[in-house]
Write a structure and sequence with these properties.
It comes from Sphingobacterium kyonggiense. The chain is α/β, with parallel strands linked by helices and 360 residues long. Helices cover 24% and strands 23% of the residues. A hairpin with a 5-residue loop joins strand 5 and strand 6. It is globular.
C-alpha cells in the first residue's frame, strides 16, 4: 500500500518533465537579431578537441557551416577564433587516447573547417599554446603559416592592414591587423597577437594602435591567454617559452595605455564539464578613460571533459545594436539546435552566458 503514492509521484514527475521538455522545444527560436539594423560577429572558442579526434571533426565543420548559413540573417561581419587551433602542433604519433589524429591531420582538419567560409566571411584566428612547439609551447615554432594565409580567403586579404614581427622576421598573419567597416559606418580594427606575445610584438602593436590613421577606429584585441575563471588577468603560466607576456602584462603594456582598444577576446581556460571554468568577463578603463570590455570564452572541456566531444558545439554571437553602444551576447550550440529532440538545449541563458554590455 505504501508503494502506490510513490508510484504516482514518479509518474507525475515523469509527466511534468516530458511536458516541460516538449514546451521548451515548442518555444525554440532560431538565432536572430533583436534589431534588423544590427550587425554581429561570431566568436568560436578553442577548437583543438574537435580536430584531435576523428569522431569530433564533424562538429567543428557543422559550426563553421552554421556560421556561413546564418551570415545573412545575423548580418555577420567577421568571425574570430580564440586559438588552440590544434591539440598538438608537431606530433606525428598520437597515442589514441589524448588524440587519434596526428598534427598534420589536425591542421588539415581545422583548415578544412574554416575553408567553408572562404569567399563568404573573413575570419581572424589567434594562435594558442597548443599551436606551438611539439605538444604545447615547448618552443616558439608553429605550422600555422603552412595552413592559413590571407591569400586563402580573399576577404581576409582585402581586410589585412598591418603585419607584425613573427619569428625569424617572417611576415605572416600570426600578428596582424584587419580593418572592417561595419554597417553603421564605423571602422573596426581587429588586432590578433600570438600566444603570450613577446615584448617586440607588444611594442609593434602599441605603435600600430597609436597611428593617427587608426585614431577613430575601435580596436578589438584577439589573443589566446588573458583572463582566468575569476575574471582576473592571468599573471603567469608554466610554459617553457621565454619572453612571454600573459594577460596582466598585455593589459599593462598594451591595453591600458591605449586610447582605442575597446574589446579583448580570449580563450584558453577550462574545467571538465564546468562551463563557469571556461568563462571570464571584466571591464576596465584605458588611458582615454574609455571602458575596455574583456571577454574570455571557451568550451573545449564541455561534452565529456578533455577527451569528450570537443565542446558541445558551443559558440557565441555578439549583436551590435544601431545605437553604437549596446552589445548583446548569446551563447548557442548548432549541435543541439540541429534536432528538434535537443533544441531546448541550444541556448545557455545564465547571466554569465546571455547578457548585455555597453561601449561608451
Amino acid at each position: 500500500m505504501k508503494k502506490q503514492p510513490i508510484l504516482i509521484y514518479v509518474l507525475l514527475l515523469g509527466l511534468f518533465l516530458t511536458v516541460g521538455q516538449t514546451f521548451a522545444q515548442q518555444v525554440y527560436q532560431k538565432p536572430k537579431l533583436s534589431d534588423k539594423n544590427s550587425w554581429s560577429l561570431v566568436l568560436l572558442p578553442d577548437p583543438q578537441s574537435y580536430v584531435k579526434f576523428e569522431r569530433n571533426v564533424g562538429i567543428i565543420n557543422m559550426m563553421t557551416t552554421w556560421v556561413k548559413e546564418t551570415a545573412d540573417s545575423l548580418n555577420t561581419q567577421f568571425v574570430l577564433c580564440t586559438g588552440d587551433l590544434v591539440e598538438q602542433n608537431d606530433l606525428m604519433n598520437p597515442n589514441g587516447k589524448a588524440a587519434n589524429q596526428n598534427s598534420r591531420q589536425q591542421w588539415t582538419n581545422i583548415r578544412s573547417a574554416f575553408q567553408r567560409l572562404d569567399g563568404y566571411l573573413p575570419y581572424v584566428l589567434a594562435t594558442g599554446n597548443h599551436d606551438y612547439g611539439h605538444v604545447s609551447a615547448e618552443y616558439r615554432s608553429t605550422h600555422y603559416d603552412q595552413y592559413f594565409s590571407a591569400e586563402q580567403n580573399g576577404l581576409n586579404a582585402r581586410a589585412l592592414r598591418e603585419v607584425g614581427p613573427n619569428l625569424n622576421g617572417a611576415s605572416t598573419a600570426v600578428n596582424a591587423t584587419f580593418e572592417f567597416q561595419v554597417p553603421s559606418g564605423k571602422k573596426i580594427l581587429v588586432m590578433v597577437l600570438e600566444f603570450a606575445p613577446r615584448d617586440t610584438v607588444l611594442q609593434w602593436a602599441k605603435k600600430v594602435v597609436d597611428k593617427p590613421i587608426y585614431a577613430n577606429h575601435e580596436v578589438i584585441l584577439l589573443t589566446h591567454v588573458f583572463l582566468d575563471k575569476k575574471s582576473q588577468h592571468i599573471v603567469k603560466q608554466g610554459y617553457k617559452i621565454e619572453d612571454a607576456n600573459y594577460g596582466a602584462a598585455v593589459f599593462e603594456k598594451l591595453v591600458k595605455p591605449s586610447k582605442n582598444i575597446r574589446l579583448v577576446f580570449s580563450g584558453h581556460i577550462g574545467e571538465a564539464d564546468k562551463f563557469d571554468g571556461h568563462l571570464g568577463f571584466r571591464q576596465d578603463k584605458n588611458a582615454a578613460g574609455k571602458t575596455v570590455s574583456q571577454m574570455t570564452f571557451n568550451a573545449q572541456a564541455m561534452g565529456g571533459g578533455w577527451h569528450g566531444n570537443g565542446g558541445d558545439g558551443w559558440l557565441r554571437y555578439l549583436e551590435f545594436l544601431p545605437d553604437g553602444k549596446t552589445v548583446k551576447v548569446k551563447t548557442f550550440s548548432p549541435l543541439f539546435a540541429i534536432s528538434p529532440a535537443t533544441q531546448y538545449l541550444a541556448y545557455k541563458t545564465e547571466k554569465n552566458q546571455e547578457f548585455e554590455f555597453s561601449i561608451d
